[in-house]
Amino acid sequence: MSSSAPAARGAADPSAPRRVVNDFSIQVATVNGSGSQTANLVLLRSIFQSGVPVSGKNMFPSNIAGLPTWYTIRANPHGYIARKNEIDFLVAMNPETAKEDVLALEPGAAVLYDEPLKLSGLRADLTFYPVPFDRIVAEVCKDAKLRRLVKNMIYDGVLSRLLGIELGQMEHALRRQMGKKTKAIELNLAALEAGFAYASTHLTKADPYWIEPLDRTAGKILIEGNAAAALGCMMAGVTVIAWYPITPSSSLPETLISYMRKYRVDRETGKATFAIVQAEDEIASIGMVLGAGWAGARAMTSTSGPGISLMSEFSGLAYYAEVPGVVFDIQRVGPSTGLPTRTSQQDVLATAVLSHGDTKHLLLIPASVQECYTMAMDAFDLAERFQTVVFVMSDLDLAMNTWMADPFEYPDRPPDRGKVLDEATLQRLGEWGRYRDVDGDGIPYRTIPGHRMPAYFTRGSGHNERGQYSERPDDYVNNMDRLARKFETARRHVPAPEVFDEPGAEVAIVGYGTSHWAIEESRDQLRREAGIRTAYLRLRAFPFTDGLDAFLDRYARVYVVEQNRDAQMLALMRMELAHARSARLRSVLHYTGLPIDARSITDSILAQEGLKARAALVPAVHAALGAGRE
Amino acid sequence: MATVTPEPGRKVNRIGLEIQPYRGGKTTLCAGCGHNAISERIIDAFFEMGVDPREVIKLSGIGCSSKSPAYFLGEAHGFNAVHGRMPSVGTGAVLANRKLIAIGVSGDGDTGAIGIGQFVHLMRRNVPIVYIIEDNGCYGLTKGQFSPTADMGSKAKSGLSNDLPPIDTCALAIQLGASFVARSFSGDKRQLLAILKASLAHRGTCMIDVLSPCVTFNDHEGSTKSYAYAKDHDEPLGEINFVPFFDDITVEYDPGTTHAVELHDGSRLYLKKVAEDYDPTDKLAAIRLLHDTASRGEFATGILYVEPEKEDFVSLLNLVDEPLAALPLERVRPPRAVLDEVMESLK
What we know:
The structure holds 2 protein chains of 2 kinds.
Chain A: E1 20-21, E2 24-31, H1 36-49, E3 54-59, E4 68-75, E5 89-92, H2 98-103, E6 110-114, E7 127-131, H3 133-140, H4 144-163, H5 167-178, H6 182-202, E8 209-210, E9 221-224, H7 225-236, E10 240-243, H8 251-263, E11 275-278, H9 282-294, E12 299-303, H10 305-310, H11 312-321, E13 325-333, E14 339-343, H12 348-352, E15 362-364, H13 369-386, E16 389-395, H14 396-400, E17 402-405, H15 423-429, E18 457-459, H16 473-490, E19 498-500, E20 507-512, H17 515-530, E21 534-539, E22 541-542, H18 546-553, E23 557-562, H19 568-576, H20 579-582, E24 585-589, H21 598-608, H22 617-624
Parallel strand pairs in A: 1-8, 2-5, 5-6, 6-7, 10-11, 10-12, 12-13, 13-16, 15-16, 20-21, 20-23, 23-24
Antiparallel strand pairs in A: 2-4, 3-4, 9-17, 13-14, 15-22, 19-21
Helix pairs in contact in A: 1-4, 1-5, 3-4, 4-6, 5-6, 7-8, 7-13, 17-21
Chain B: H1 34-49, E1 56-60, H2 64-67, E2 77-80, H3 86-96, E3 101-107, H4 108-112, H5 116-125, E4 129-135, E5 138-139, E6 145-146, H6 169-176, E7 180-185, H7 189-201, E8 205-211, H8 227-233, E9 234-236, E10 240-243, E11 258-262, E12 268-272, H9 283-295, E13 299-306, H10 313-316, H11 329-332, H12 336-346
Parallel strand pairs in B: 1-2, 1-3, 3-4, 4-8, 7-8, 9-13
Antiparallel strand pairs in B: 5-6, 7-13, 10-12, 11-12
């Protein structure tokens, strides 16, 4: 993965045309609602099937139809799958953005465009391929109403020819994508072939970009983070799910519903081993989760920033009254409504301390679809072990985009249901108090309604260790101190960070979540371009484990990479770490709403190290983020 | 069932329990508070119906009313939720364990103001729960501000007059889909007990609004929620005769004088007719009755509406018969073959 070999640049003969093989990005610019998703996924999948590592990122508006949308596919032979700023091959289908999209390209890029847009006169340093989409689609699709839906498949056909992706791979991907819809497959296949035929007879290859078969994707799967999390929840044995629709979270419960209906209905009776409720809002969602968790079920909800804000009061109750529950936060861009369809890591700080009053929560931070799956299971175990609400901090990039991964493993251990009082334990303890710390780890025993063990009154008001109402200062302090002790215990149970030490290096990077992919690529860039070797620690949970302290002690300057403006994780580290350690911390911040890219990290670190960043790229970054796109 | 052998002479119910497990902690509400009388009736109803307290969950929101679950059924689990959000907690709990018998106690502010959203959706879902509003038209715990059930023109202790129309929680509940809707008065022991017992025989949302005067902040002249006003303006719909399924008593009524309703568990309800055209299974008639009595400045009490056959939320979701919370691992974690199948589909 962290190979430092330069990108494949093809022929050794300097007079031969430049060939860029399997290492470029394609951006498809369309209008939201025009049915381009199928064509884009077919393109992505056909590259994947060719054995070339690939990632697809959808940059879409908060809109049903009519606004511009961009889908970026990055192929990379080394497996770099973070977003890349530079676009090498543009497919311009949207009249509204075409001009600006073309002007933002770097010299040498190629543009495939809808002929009437007349883009070829805009620049002399690009390769242009005009394609008369309307004329081609009219020939293959007699029904004028359906043309809009199959038109996009034509660019797949053209790209198949121009990039050298086998048409058979496209066809296979298309069949896979469309399932059993025979008529739709026929129409789309015709469009695909027509595009290929048009390119064969009318277009001459003049750009350097090629896809050639590799063997880097065998056995791998393609999945979105939300689907992976849904699978994890099902395997964790979730039984009660309450949710409220919000982008980019909705596809998690919706995918879960489809899995549960298929795999969790009792065969004999036809009855469900789960309850899924679309609640009236996020407050009710978490209320139902806590009611169910209190009554012994594994319960979850999924939401995004605005929902997290609404869940604040109940989160404090879950912490203080010690009720288990799992909340997925699929982070989008805030504050307020913000950019609902863009990605960020902006909820970290608020969620860690969500609620009024002294409160601290357990956060799990997946970086991959794999971790969306495993951390879903971890979250339920930790929620029941620690009798509290656990947040899984995903983000839009991870949740809604398609990622390559190894197939998920079947869970190898039974769920941890935590300390639930039973007859034997009661005998051993002699006397039971709901909030009494009998094991010294801050975790008390709970009882569950209907189990016929001693009852207690669960309340968010002050209580003593027997669960009785109390306003006594000593009761309050004892309880709060025990909760702090419980949080200390959690440090030893949450997923430990992933550490990549670099002996002798001075510079280290701390990152988390989806920043991981860009950080890995950036570390290679730093080594290659400036000879800077870096150590790297990827946080996977809050509270921090002891490993973080030791790591920070080994390096002089530590860059904390985050996708937010306010260096939120760094702020949490300052809260938790000794001053001497936190003094070593510096920030690399990215908050454009687009997934973080390696170049931004590299340039920021180089600048802070007093070295010159690759300045030539800076205007391109600004152009790509121009106001016209918002 | 418990098989306690009682001491001779001690009164036990049909499952062999004495009254003690049905009692709760000592009340911290004001002396004479209507809420305490309601707690007493809840104790009586659960005792007389022979409901095992260990199968009951008590839920509440925030406010004076919401403290009261600590004062009854001490052997039942309780959950004092956040303000106005008890319905969601109750919904989650009964979904987790459909065998639990849920009783929620709320207030007029907890329900009608901050909690109106969750209230509305609880009624709409017909979640199996007995939902009691201890209704005194004011916020007691914060010293007497008007609540959304305060009548127009009703006077606060400070002399301030309420200038907004009240929310009729019963009319709302009927319209939204609650399948058992009643109103009573904390001072009418007999009627309230009959309603509570009938509610325990029903499956679905039982919404019971109980006028429960606040002796400290809303019991003065000029208030429409005082004891004196309630006594003068209470219009009982007629005698309620509730016959639980375990009693063999047969009741004979003159034809045409009584509505007989069979409840979910086989218990029977005989409601004496007060007006020729009033039928407690007729939604529109119930709403009209509420409207007509309110326009006369009276409040009708009794079982206003009942729909015994309506599907409750748990049935609607087609849940397995066992509590979801108690399902063994092999029923909630699909086998390895399922994961393999899903993985194969993603390759």
